[in-house]
Amino acid sequence: MKHFKQSIYNLIVDTSSNLPPDVRRALNRAMNVEIPATQSALALQTIAINVDMAADGAVPICQDTGMPTFEIRVPMGANEILMKREIQEAVEQATKDGKLRPNAVDSLTGKNSGNNLGPGAPVVHFEQWERDDIEVRLLLKGGGCENKNIQYSLPAELPNLGRADRTLEGVRKCIMHAVYQAQGQGCSVGALGVAIGGDRTSGYSFAKHQLFRSLDDVNPNPELAALERRIMEDANKLGIGTMGFGGSQTLIGCKIGALHRLPASFFVSVAYNCWAFRRQGVELDAKTGTITRWLYKDEVPVSRMTEDESLPLTGREVRLTTPISVEQIRSLKVGDVVLLSGIVHTGRDALHHHLLSHDSPVELSGGVIYHCGPVALKQGNEWMINAAGPTTSIREEPYQGDIIRKFGVRAVIGKGGMGAKTLAALKECGAVYLNAIGGAAQYYTKCIEKVEGVDFLDFGIPEAMWHLRVKDFAAVVTMDAHGKSLHADVEKASAAKLAEFADLAS
Q1: pTM of the predicted model as reported, rounded to 2 decimal places
Q2: Residue 506 reports pLDDT greater than 50
Q3: Vertex 207, ends 201 and 212: CA angle to 5°?
Q4: Which range (12-21, 35-44, 404-413, 425-434) has the least confidence?
Q5: What residues are paired with 10 via a beta bridge?
Q6: What is the maximal distance between C-alpha atoms in the chain?
Q7: Tens digit of pLDDT for each residue in 14-25?
Q8: Which of 17, 40, 180, 506 would bridge with 247, disulfide CB 3.0–4.6 Å?
Q9: What is the enclosing helix (H) or strand (E) of 88?
Q10: Alpha carbon of 158 to those of 161, 163, 241, 393: distances in Å?
Q11: Kind and range of the H or E element at 470?
């Protein structure tokens, strides 16, 4: 199969950069029904711009390209050893070309392999079938939404929902709770893959397998089809909204499957996927390895999500340039849209842990820390950023308040919000949390004028401290210096809504 590796490379690039038509249609439906002129509507508009920009440039939709997961069906006699080797080579090349971010980290040493290869990476599953061709499906599921996967063992007591029994009604409660617990940290609007039954391992695997279904399909099991429809209707009444900003659209898909189980076990496993629903598939000629058909593409060309690549300004946006003063920060309130210019410094888990006990290599007083692990490529002696959207901020909750106090940081950019410890530091020190739109890696990349430098490259590209000069970087104040948190308000309101769905057995 002399063309197999190139076909896999083409599949990786398309999956990373081009949302399939069924996902685009679902996002368009969400845009059309969301309440205009709200933060959620603004977020959906940013998402639409980002989708087009990524497809136009064949660059990653989101900087977190996840753990590549391949599901492959092969005819009898196929050389799976050779195919796996060429898949690894294609993944390595796609990483080198900036189509994938280097995401494979040694769990013992913390060292990034730099090429997305290592024990268990990428994930490759083979299955024989009776056809003569080869089918390859690929899922790129980022860490933010992967962290919001959840598994329940029934019977169970669920917050705001009461007892969930070993029934479809109990399953419904679990799925509703799964949507609630994700809030905006999983980059809603999201999609769910759900597995009823199995064991702990097969349940999670089968839940993720449901994400390969088209969002437009209808479950062949009438009971599960009815449950899918009901979850879609009820979840969008929780008021979580895009990015957890509040709003009428929280879910764009729910796909449920069922496995046999042990008498002693009843698991409900939920795989949460963000709006950047990157999955694609191809059929290949088993002799040549050439692509004969794309699985998730319509016959007609994919329509653009929007006609304009810039957000319309209202004139009410607040323009800030680093370094930022305490007085400027204290004047901001939750809901303000900020256009930030100047220098921002990226920082994730490794940097925050390091800064607790070390000095910063750059001055952070009056500065901005951006929770971001970019896709970065070196061209000659210069670095360029290929994708740079926000990562989920809650992981830094154990550190962020102390970092703000220690260094005089005035703003933190991320997605999904942070907790009470950070909120207290914002109020005490005069700082704000700015929520950028998760997954919008290309939209924010165009705001980067220059890479001014980088520190801690030994942490790996995603965890390094990148110093970026930005212009008109748009984000929403969701936690201010007066003790107000939009995230806490939405979580409280959605918990009350969730309780309304506690006892709705039909």
Answers
A1: 0.95
A2: no
A3: 130
A4: 35-44
A5: none
A6: 70
A7: 999 999 999 999
A8: 40
A9: helix 80-96
A10: 5, 6, 22, 25
A11: strand 465-479
